[in-house]
Amino acid sequence: MKTACRLTLIAVLIAATSLGASVGSAQAVATPTDNAATRTVRNGVAYITGGVGSDEVAAMRSVASQYSLRMTFLTQGGQFLSDVAVEIVGPSGASVLNTSTLGPFLYVSLPMGRYQVAAYAAGTKQTRVVHVNARQGTNVEFVFPASAHQAMPVRATSR
């Protein structure tokens, strides 16, 4: 049963990311734990956020290659974070995405270029300059102080 739910979740998540959504729309994918990995297109920028629970972590990882910028949010102790406010500023200096995460992962489809990413958690702001490579994508990890109040109690792992 659990394997069937996981396979259904992965199939729905892949279908949701393949079909594309209209500007400003959101698509939620239900999981057995009622958490959701949500794919959204805002101002022409597609992104997905989530990763709460091992099934959702697996689903997120299965679609990671479809996104050119992949971010993970952690505490210094290695616990996953959610509810991280993120702003991405593009090469022109304009904000291209401003959102909050629904889990420890935020994957974004961006064209190749140089971006400034600001993440806010636990009263702390971290900024990174990121060079997005369209071919293989870019992975970025933000590590916040262990006192982060949004810390999820257990770091989920995929099976």
What is the element layout, followed by pairings?
Layout: H1 2-19, E1 25-30, E2 36-42, E3 45-50, H2 54-63, E4 69-75, E5 85-89, E6 95-100, E7 105-108, E8 113-121, E9 124-132, E10 138-144
Parallel strand pairs: 4-10
Antiparallel strand pairs: 1-2, 2-3, 3-7, 4-7, 5-6, 5-8, 8-9
Helix pairs in contact: 1-2
The percent of residues in helical segments reads: 10-25%
- Order of strands in the sheet with the most strands? 1-2-3-7-4-10
Q: Globular, elongated, flat, extended or rod-shaped: what is the shape?
A: globular
CATH class: Mainly Beta
Mean pLDDT rating: 77
**Which stretches are poorly predicted, pLDDT < 50 over at least 5 residues?**
1-35, 149-159
**Alpha-carbon distance between the two ends:** 15 Å
Please state roughly what percent of the residues sit in beta strands, choosing from under 5%, 5-15%, 15-25%, 25-35%, 35-45% or over 45%.
Answer: 35-45%
Main pleated-sheet profile: 6 strands, mixed
How many β-strand stretches?
10
Give me the number of helical elements. 2
H/E series, N to C?
HEEEHEEEEEEE
CATH topology: Immunoglobulin-like
Proper CATH architecture? Sandwich
Q: What structural class results from the helix and strand content? A: alpha+beta
The CATH superfamily name is Immunoglobulins
Backbone CA Rg:
15 Å
* Number of spatially distinct domains: 1
